């Protein structure tokens, strides 16, 4: 084949190959169906569902502040670290004073006169470091002296005995108090306070409301229980400042006192979406595209201990169900009410408009105005009838109708 002919056929072959490949890609895309929209990356929770705050303190340079409040630091430690510190506190104290008892015996020469019956040691039958360690344990724990006992010929031993008794009592009070507070922490009581797994948006008395449910699994009640809700989402100020975790209060009845709960049976907490609500202009579609987190906080005093307890949970935008309502969990039995916690988290769909609360309020206002102007009143009918009757005989009735004045009532005209 000639070179000029071969050069002219090469671009045509490349173009044909490119078109065939493009057609194959289009057919594959058509066969695969419509492309799925990309999944939105899940929001990082500020508060976990179990109430733990997902915040870690970093680059804390002033660590000495933790030692200034050592008691709270020990209470906040994890259980394994608290138990380790508890064991070390006693073991090191016993070892420290045991070493001092051994040094006293060594300095006095008691260890060199173990077989001398005429020698009066500081501590009888103290023949080494192990015996001194056991004597330290007996002194601090007040177990009692049987084989080893201090004598009255050792003034330095008497002083050390007083110091160990005082310091041992302080260590006992500190460590036992720390463990008691840790065991009786009220956050364990919060484990039996449950929140619904989802929040719902539906109509209540003709108004859109954001609702969630709370319940108490124990028979002992939470005294002076109160509920709060916070909206966590990013915002940018007019000056351009970006606030990543801005907190906004969601009213759950603070003005009316509905936030004070009598938590004997599960309650549905409602946030009315009004003009003061951050969801005032949020429709169903806009709410699904939004990115926020709702943190709910339940506080109260434990009836058994009187300590303040706080339970927390949160709801992401994917956990807010539009057009749903909670299933009833309370039934009336023979002489008592029964709560069925098996359906505590269950919801069901109800007819709910997809528009925002602002649009719903405007539509209701327009409907009220239309009904007001479309219903004729009896006074307007009287004005029209009398105006038509007096229009031919004079202008008195016409003048009154033009000026908007109403004729006197029927009883007064007859008189």
Structural write-up:
It is a single chain. With 415 residues, the protein is an alpha+beta fold. Among the domains are: 65-184, Helix Hairpins (Orthogonal Bundle); 189-358, G protein-activated inward rectifier potassium channel 1 (Immunoglobulin-like, Sandwich), CATH 2.60.40. The protein is 39% helix and 20% strand. It has 11 helices and 14 strands. It has helices at 3-32, 64-68, 70-76, 79-108, 129-141, 155-183, 284-289, 357-374, 378-390, 396-402, 410-414; strands at 193-195, 199-204, 207-216, 222-236, 242-249, 260-261, 267-272, 293-302, 308-316, 320-322, 324-326, 330-332, 337-339, 347-349. Strands 1, 2, 3, 7 and 10 form a 5-stranded mixed sheet that branches. Strands 4, 5, 6, 8 and 9 form a 5-stranded antiparallel sheet that branches. A two-stranded antiparallel sheet has the order 11-14. A hairpin with a 5-residue loop joins strand 8 (293-302) and strand 9. Helix 9 (378-390) runs antiparallel to helix 10. It is elongated and about 120 Å long. Residues 1-39 and 391-415 have low confidence and may be disordered.
């Amino acid at each position: 084949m000639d070179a000029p002919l071969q050069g002219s056929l090469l671009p045509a072959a490349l173009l044909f190959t490119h078109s065939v490949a493009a057609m194959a890609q289009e057919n594959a895309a058509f066969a695969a169906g419509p492309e799925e929209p990309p999944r939105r990356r899940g929001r990082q929770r500020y508060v976990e569902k179990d109430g733990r705050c997902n915040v870690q303190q970093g680059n804390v340079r002033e660590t000495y502040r933790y030692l200034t409040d050592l008691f709270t630091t020990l209470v906040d430690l994890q259980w394994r670290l608290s138990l380790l510190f508890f064991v070390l506190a006693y073991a090191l104290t016993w070892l420290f004073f045991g070493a001092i008892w051994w040094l006293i015996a060594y300095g006095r020469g008691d260890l060199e006169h173990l077989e001398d019956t005429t020698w009066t040691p500081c501590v009888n039958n103290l023949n080494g470091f192990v015996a001194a360690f056991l004597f330290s344990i007996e002194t601090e724990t007040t177990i009692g002296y049987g084989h080893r006992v201090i004598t009255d010929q050792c003034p330095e031993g008497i002083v050390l005995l007083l110091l160990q008794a005082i310091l041992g009592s302080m260590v006992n009070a500190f460590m036992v108090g720390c463990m008691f507070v840790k065991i009786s922490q009220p956050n364990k009581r919060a484990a039996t306070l449950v929140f619904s797994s989802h929040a719902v948006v539906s109509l209540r008395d003709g108004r859109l409301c954001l609702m969630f449910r709370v319940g108490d699994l124990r028979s002992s009640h939470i005294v002076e229980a109160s509920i709060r809700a916070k909206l966590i989402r990013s915002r940018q100020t007019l000056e351009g400042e970006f606030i990543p975790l801005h907190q906004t209060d969601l009213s759950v009845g603070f003005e009316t006192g509905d936030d004070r709960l009598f938590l004997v049976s599960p309650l549905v907490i409602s946030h009315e979406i009004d003009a003061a609500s951050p969801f005032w202009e949020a429709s169903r579609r806009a709410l699904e595209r939004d990115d926020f987190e709702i943190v709910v906080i339940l506080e109260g005093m434990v009836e058994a201990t009187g300590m303040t307890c706080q339970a927390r949970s949160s709801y992401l935008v994917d956990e807010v169900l539009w057009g749903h309502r909670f299933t009833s969990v309370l039934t009336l039995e023979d002489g008592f009410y029964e709560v069925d916690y098996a359906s505590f988290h269950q919801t069901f769909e109800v007819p709910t408009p997809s528009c925002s609360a602002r649009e719903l309020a405007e539509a209701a206002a327009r409907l009220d105005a239309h009904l007001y102007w479309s219903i004729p009143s009896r006074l307007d009918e009287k004005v029209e009838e009398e105006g038509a009757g007096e229009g031919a005989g004079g202008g008195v009735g016409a003048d009154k109708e033009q000026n908007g004045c109403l004729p006197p009532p029927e009883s007064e005209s007859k008189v």
